[in-house]
Design brief:
The complex is a heterodimer of chains A (381) and B (683). Chain A has 381 residues and is α/β, with parallel strands linked by helices. Chain A contains 16 helices and 16 strands. The N and C termini of chain A lie far apart (76 Å). Chain B is mainly alpha-helical and 683 residues long. In chain B, 72% of the residues lie in helices and 2% in strands. A two-stranded antiparallel sheet of chain B has the order 1-2. The longest helix of chain B is centred in the N-terminal third of the chain and has 33 residues. Classes of the chains: A alpha/beta (381), B mainly alpha (683). Chains A and B meet through strand 2, helix 3, helix 9, helix 10 and helix 15 of A and helix 6, strand 3, helix 12, helix 22 and helix 29 of B.
Chain lengths: 381, 683
């Protein structure tokens, strides 16, 4: 009898162990601790599946090599929208559908050929940080580009740097590129067009603020952020992911949406992250449903200052914090950049080089943009 | 997958033929590792270059990709920049290392302290110290601590000379310890009688250095310098972190590639990897780079053997034949120095000493062309054939002529100069290290730019590091991986090197190690990952350790081989007479005698394994297996695009430095005796 009981218990234990489905989830960027908390809560709330969370420092590179080498992919991974094309072409992900209400920008970020390929989770937006101890006057959210330049000039007159920004980064230039081209990125058969009048105007605007009026100074890497934190610069253009860092440094600052040009907000890049599914099963869907619940998204995004995809979570956060209001406003006018390699790499390298050569006066405006276009076209072949 | 296995089989066949007579019982283990980690990925790279390969689809395209890669003006310009950058690094290393070594050698007191201090940079992972140096050099867009000292801005994004020279300096800073150690050890071999004699003659320190120290040590040191030159061709991390390959060049803005002032071949390959999904194109660029490296490896190989002087003279011709038509050299003007070198070869074969005059004439032509061309055309004017020819010529014609100084200051002057120089170098070593300490002890999340003191002193970062980032487990993982890598390295490399000393067939292993190690890159990780997936070595300590042990194979082999070659033959002969077989002699006699140099290898492998982060990134999917380097990488994230936690990173860097330096200091005595014990190159 005792043997039968022991054997039965062992069998039940085996069934339990083997019946537990393990889900491998790859996570990256900020919010690792917050996401771990959610994962632990999920694991504790039920016994049928167990999530193994792995933090990946460079998700794009990891996926690229794993895909090419045919090595193991996880069940779920948090990705940036610019890899959707690569994953879909490799046929490792399939279209998904969601009933969660979210801003159109989230859905557009992960759409390819009209189909949604990931569950949007959050977004970072580009914003203008303003140091209130250097410039204390209030600024409305519908400020114009002229207002922006005037503020930068008045900050410069106090002996500070008006605006700190990476002048050669295509990541920030995209917004002005689109703004001076009527609000969207000019494409022809999927190929970015850079040697046109709109782009020339964007280049000239850069030259004006950096070289002529000198109200903006170009820094990069750690100096860019440090210049704002140390009080050297009055304004900084960067991603909203820096809000927690500046708050913990007890800086007196606020954030503003991008200024308005010709009646429209200069569109900030919408840097969206979402979960792609490599192994579709009930356990995976259950996990994704859990973390996408409004209260869980709110928990994740509240301390990390991410804009949640779930619109209920977003409204909750907006009501409690003005920073989320700015992020929401920015998201409604955001720029979804193309996710093709031509844009992410060829255009990006070309425009960075063209900006550098033009702004350092090594090349004329026309020549630099002509070279950039030739390079992009050549890579597109 | 069919193509994968076909290429696997072909490369296995080729490899087997190459190493067939290489005493398998001693070399099999190393041969298997070399094949899997280096040789097969190398053949893979060349094989896929004949295809358009968008995984998993392949389409045969013949020579299209190879033609595109070989004749890409961006690739040619990048090769030129790489050659000039590598030479700059080498010149900085020679100059500073000799100054350091001679200063320490001539010290009566504190020599041990300065020995240890000089070797300190070697123990610090490059990704930690480069970030520190960048903030010291560039600061706020060129307004930095160092810019105030030099009185000029150093904007590494736009200032071409600053970006080029500072990146070369930082790369040299990381390698100077090793070169200094080699020079120091070769200084030990100078006869004390000779030293005493020149002192009695009244020679001042400058005369002693130029007439005794440098001539006596140069033949031993120069082979290492050429290896450094080769390694610089593959340099990636320092440049990537400091300049990203920039500043932009007008002539570098091409159709196929964009090349900046510091876009070396390593950076170019990385950019290609990011840009293209077509691995056939990557393979083609890899083949083009590989061809350059094979020629350089041939030259470097011949440096190990001074008997092969005619090979070095032939190399002078080869570099012109190879690089001039390719557009990387002097073009049609290459005929002029080539005539001189050909004449020199004929003279040498006829045993006439006048061959050196012809080499000198050719070298002067090469040097003159290089100066004129670069002055006129900037980076486009660089001639790779001229650079290499000048380096080779110096080696071939160097004789250490008698130099008598007209400048004869007092002993106090030399003493003050030496103290000043050692004081300056002490500051240069400590400055970036202190910057890291300031980062790690700051309450604020900052990279120190305007102040060298912590922003709000705290030890909380260390608490956070261990509590929130699992750093303790990361240290354990690093130790496990390093120990396994060391074990594999010793167990495979030692027997193979022993066999190479006793068997000419086994010598081929050395050539395979050298050549295949020069071909590794991002694209070769793909076939490696595929192979490891098949062998179920992914996501394991042993998988990562295997790769890291092979990465250290080249330097390990070139340290061990000359040492074993110099051991007295009668020791083994006596054992043979007593009936000991080869394996017993290797294990019971040669192995204990080799411990000094093996300790050096152990430290090499340890530091290399501890610092590596690309291999763990690709081959580990389990966070519980992440070593220290991955945890550090996590804290920085994508540099400039994510929220980097500099203060926690700094704390991790401090812990990292303390661990590695402690082990290094514990093994210091063995390292130094290991280098001293070897008597140099086969004569």
């Amino acid at each position: 009898m005792r043997k039968i009981v022991i054997i039965t218990l062992l069998m039940a234990l085996s069934i339990y162990v083997f019946a537990t489905v393990n889900i491998n989830v790859w996570f990256s960027w900020e919010g690792q601790r917050e996401f771990e908390t959610l994962v632990n809560k999920f694991n504790e709330s039920q016994s049928l599946c167990h999530v193994n969370l792995v933090y990946i420092p460079d998700m794009t590179q990891k996926l690229q090599i794993s895909l090419s080498a045919g090595t193991q992919l996880p069940d779920v991974a948090l990705v940036r929208n610019d890899v959707i094309g690569m994953l879909a072409n490799a046929k490792v992900i399939t279209p998904v559908s969601t009933t969660v209400s979210m801003l159109p920008a989230f859905l557009r970020s992960f759409e390819l050929n009209g189909k949604l390929y990931a569950y949007p989770y959050y977004a970072d937006l580009q914003v203008v940080y303003l140091n209130r101890s250097i410039y204390s006057k209030s600024v409305s959210y519908d400020w114009t580009l002229d207002d922006f330049e005037k503020i930068a000039s008045s900050i410069k007159e106090t002996g500070h740097v008006g605006l700190s920004m990476n002048s050669f980064s295509s990541y920030f230039f995209n917004s002005f590129y689109a703004a001076f081209n009527g609000g969207k990125i000019p494409l022809k058969n999927g190929i970015p067009i850079v040697n046109n009048e709109g782009t020339k105007k964007a280049f000239e605007f850069y030259n004006d603020i950096f070289n002529v009026k000198k109200i903006a100074v170009s820094y990069n890497k750690s100096a860019l952020i440090q210049s704002f934190k140390s009080g050297k610069a009055g304004m900084l253009i960067q991603g909203s992911f820096l809000i927690p860092d500046f708050l913990s440094s007890k800086l007196d600052f606020t954030i503003l949406p991008y200024p308005v040009l010709d009646g429209k907000m200069i569109p900030p890049t919408f840097d969206a992250k979402g979960f792609v599914i490599f192994t579709d099963n009930e356990a995976v869907r259950e996990f994704l449903n859990y973390i996408s619940r409004p209260e869980n998204e709110e928990f994740f995004c509240k301390s990390t200052y991410k804009l949640p995809a779930n619109i209920i979570a977003m409204h909750e956060l907006e009501n409690s914090n003005d920073f989320f209001k700015v992020m929401d406003l920015s998201a409604r006018n955001a720029l979804i950049v193309p996710t093709t390699t031509i844009f992410n790499d060829a255009y990006s390298n070309a425009i960075t080089t063209a900006l550098q050569l033009y702004l350092t006066k090594q090349m004329s405006l026309d020549e630099s943009l002509q070279k950039a276009q030739e390079y992009i076209n050549s890579q597109a072949k | 997958m069919t193509f994968f296995w076909l290429l696997f089989s072909i490369s296995l066949l080729i490899f087997s033929v190459i190493v067939a007579r290489a005493k398998p019982i001693y070399t099999l283990a190393l041969a298997i590792l070399l094949f899997l980690v280096n040789f097969f990925p190398f053949v893979w790279g060349i094989g896929i270059s004949f295809f358009d390969f968008f995984p998993p689809e392949m389409k045969f395209t013949g020579l299209k990709n190879l033609q595109m890669a070989f004749f890409d003006p961006g690739f040619i310009l990048s090769s030129k920049i790489t050659a000039l950058w590598a030479m700059t690094v080498m010149v900085i290393e020679i100059a500073i290392s000799y100054l350091l070594a001679i200063s320490i050698y001539s010290m009566k007191k504190f020599s041990s302290f300065f020995y240890t201090l000089t070797l300190l940079p070697w123990a610090i992972p490059s990704y930690i110290i480069v970030i520190s140096w960048t903030s010291l050099i560039e600061g706020y867009g060129g307004d930095s601590f160092l810019s105030h000292i030099f009185g000029m801005p150093f904007d590494l994004t736009t200032n071409i000379p600053a970006a080029f020279l500072w990146s070369a300096f930082v790369a040299a800073w990381l390698s100077i310890p090793m070169v200094t150690l080699v020079i120091l050890s070769s200084l030990q071999t100078i006869s004390p009688n000779l030293r005493d004699l020149v002192k009695i003659e009244g020679a001042n320190p400058l005369e002693i250095a130029l007439n005794v120290y440098i001539p006596q040590t140069f033949p031993i040191v120069f082979p290492y310098l050429f290896i450094i030159f080769l390694e610089s061709f593959k340099e990636f991390a320092t440049i990537f972190l400091m300049t990203g390959g920039g500043p932009a060049l007008v002539s570098g803005f091409g159709l196929k590639s964009i090349v900046g002032a510091t876009t070396t071949l390593g950076i170019l390959m990385y950019n290609k990897f990011s840009l293209t999904q077509n691995y056939g194109v990557l393979g083609a660029y890899s083949a083009a780079i590989g061809l350059i490296m094979v020629l350089l490896a041939f030259i470097g190989w011949n440096y190990r053997f001074s008997k092969k002087k005619e090979n070095l003279i032939i190399s002078l011709l080869l570099v012109h034949i190879f690089f001039d038509p390719w557009g990387m050299g002097m073009g049609i003007f290459g005929i002029f120095p080539s005539v001189f070198y050909l004449t020199a070869l004929i003279m040498y074969l006829k045993r006439r000493r006048s061959f050196k005059r012809y080499i000198m004439a050719g070298a002067l032509f090469d040097f003159g062309y290089l100066i004129l061309s670069v002055s006129k055309s900037g980076f486009d004017g660089i001639s790779i054939s001229s650079i290499i020819a000048v380096i080779l010529s110096i080696t071939l014609i160097f004789e250490g002529r008698i130099y008598i100084s007209r400048f004869n200051p007092s002993k106090i002057f030399w003493k003050v100069l030496k103290i000043g120089w050692m004081g300056l170098w002490t500051v240069i070593i400590f400055l970036p290290v202190w910057n890291v300490f300031a980062m790690g002890l700051s309450r604020e999340n900052v990279v120190p730019i305007t102040s060298l003191f912590p922003h709000g002193f705290t030890f909380d970062n260390f608490v956070s590091l261990f509590q929130n980032y699992n750093f303790g487990q990361a240290i354990i993982n690093s130790i496990i991986i390093s120990v396994i890598a060391i074990f594999i390295a010793i167990v495979t490399i030692f027997p193979a090197t022993y066999a190479a000393v006793h068997n000419k067939g086994a010598l081929r292993i050395g050539m395979v190690i050298l050549i295949s190690s020069l071909f590794t890159g991002m694209h070769t990780l793909i076939p490696l990952a595929m192979t490891f997936r098949f062998l179920e070595l992914l996501n394991s300590y042993i998988g990562v350790a295997l790769i890291l042990s092979v990465h250290a194979a080249a330097i390990s082999y070139f340290l061990l081989y000359p040492f074993l070659l110099e051991l007295p033959k009668n020791i083994e002969e006596a054992a043979m007479i007593d009936g000991a077989n080869g394996f017993t002699r290797m294990l019971k006699i040669i192995f204990p005698l080799s411990l000094p140099v093996l300790w050096t290898i152990i430290v090499f492998v340890f530091i290399d394994s501890w610092s590596s982060f690309v291999i763990p990134l690709i081959f580990l999917n389990n966070q519980n297996l992440y070593p220290v380097s991955m945890t550090m990488y996590n804290l920085v994230g994508q540099y400039g695009l994510t929220y980097s936690k500099w203060n926690i990173f700094g704390a991790g860097a401090i812990v990292n430095i303390v661990i590695v330096v402690t082990i290094f200091l514990a093994a210091r005595k063995y390292i130094i005796s290991g280098i001293i014990s070897r008597n140099g190159v086969d004569d």
